[in-house]
Amino acid sequence: MRLAPTQSRLALAAILSLAAASSWTSGAAAQEPRPREPLIRVSGEGEASVVPDMAVVSLSVVRNGETADAALSANSAAMKEVLAALKAEGIADRDIQTSNFSIYPQYRHTEPKDGVVEPPKIIGYEVSNGVSLKIRDLDKLGGIIDKSVKLGVNQGGQIEFTNDNPKDAMKDARKAAVAEALDKAKTLTEAAGVKLGRVIEISENTARPPQPMMRMAMAKDMAAESVPVAAGENTYRVTVNVTFQLDQ
């Protein structure tokens, strides 16, 4: 049966209206936000202390001369003696590294005369040669510093106590941090009357341990006996952030 033109237009309009309503319903359903998964986020901190087994020492030889060449020659001669003595103490080549080298002109400034300022004049040169040492036998630390000073070291003296391999200490600190985070989560969920679920995410922040340091101004007339040093302990700290699921 054929429809009249007016009936055809009405039927088409009804079909389009139904299609639009269906599309709007589907779009509204798609845009409806999904319910959030119940979660709890906590942090925990753990630490572990260990006695240092290594020291990093910075020493410098500074020499002056009327010319750059004279200052360099004096500096090099003194540094050669220092390096030879360090190696004689059993310090390996891999634990000795030049850390800084510089040549600076030294100036003499004169007072202005009759309003005239004369430019500064170079009166000599200063050469500084620094060396960084890893001393793995801490019993030798004081003696090595003393011997270095006697042989020509006259600047530096920064000591940083550290550990060659803090892997075990870091492992203990991580375990303690996770245990603290888990204890926090259990306390919070028990107080709230909900159940603690599985772990969703764990992240870690590692704090470098504060380094015990000793600084001293070195001079050729230091006491003959070994320099007294105290290594103390290094404390390694780890913070973890843990996200747990909450069971309904």
TrEMBL record:
**First and last residue of the signal peptide:** 1-28
Record's keyword terms, sorted:
Signal
Membrane-spanning residues where? Answer: none
Which InterPro entries does the record associate with it?
A: 26kDa_periplasmic_antigen, SIMPL/DUF541
Q: What is this protein called?
A: SIMPL domain-containing protein
Presence of keyword Signal: yes
Q: Does the keyword Lipid biosynthesis apply?
A: no
